[in-house]
């Protein structure tokens, strides 16, 4: 896996993945940026959320759950000192569908957290307290 990050101006950078996709990262105006893109630390959270949601959806589809929507809401805390590393991250999955089985949703979230999500597991290995939760919304109730 490869990636390139190129400085543009001020606190703005463009990252390009090995698969050829680009994303703009920028800082706030107070740090010399123009607030034109996500912050690099936000990008880490988005990557972790994407990795875990990919796992959860894959597991639920394989278990033939009728999922119409899935999102993960992520809350993170950072250290007050430099480096301002993540200290806690909580991922809460909201899964919407028809006749979803709670045990299947719970299992999907647990498997992602404990076995499949490289980003989440890597954060835990680095000492971040990572927790997971889930909610089920029956289609039509959301």
Short description:
This protein has 142 residues and is of the alpha+beta class. The chain is built from three helices and six strands, in the order E-E-E-H-E-E-H-H-E.
Instruction: Report strand order across the widest sheet.
Output: 1-2-3
Helices and strands, in order, run as EEEHEEHHE
**Second CATH tier, the architecture of the largest domain:** 2-Layer Sandwich
Low-pLDDT residue intervals, each spanning 5 or more residues: none
Number of strands: 6
Q: Taking all residues together, what is the mean pLDDT?
A: 96
Task: Report the total helices.
Answer: 3
The biggest sheet amounts to: 3 strands, antiparallel
Counted up, domains total 2
> How would you classify the quaternary structure?
single chain
CATH topology of the largest domain: GMP Synthetase, Chain A, domain 3
The helix-and-strand class reads alpha+beta
The CATH C-level name of the largest domain is Alpha Beta
Tell me the radius of gyration. Answer: 17 Å
Question: Approximately what portion of the residues adopt beta-strand conformation?
Answer: 35-45%
Distance from N terminus to C terminus (CA atoms, Å) equals 38 Å
So what's the overall shape?
elongated
CATH superfamily heading of the largest domain = K homology (KH) domain
Q: In which range does the helix fraction lie?
A: 25-40%
């Amino acid at each position: 896996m490869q990636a390139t990050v190129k400085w543009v101006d001020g606190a703005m950078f463009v990252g390009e993945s090995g698969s050829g996709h680009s994303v703009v990262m920028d800082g706030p105006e107070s740090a010399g940026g123009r607030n034109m893109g996500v912050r690099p630390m936000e990008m880490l959270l988005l990557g972790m959320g994407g990795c875990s949601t990919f796992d959860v959806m894959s597991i639920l589809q394989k278990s033939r759950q009728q999922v119409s929507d899935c999102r993960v809401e992520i809350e993170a805390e950072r250290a007050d000192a430099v480096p301002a590393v993540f200290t806690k991250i909580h991922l809460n999955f909201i899964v919407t569908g028809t006749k979803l089985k709670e045990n299947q949703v719970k299992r999907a979230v647990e498997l992602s957290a404990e076995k499949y999500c490289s980003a989440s597991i890597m954060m835990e290995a680095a000492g971040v307290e990572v927790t997971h939760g889930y909610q089920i919304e029956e289609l039509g109730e959301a």
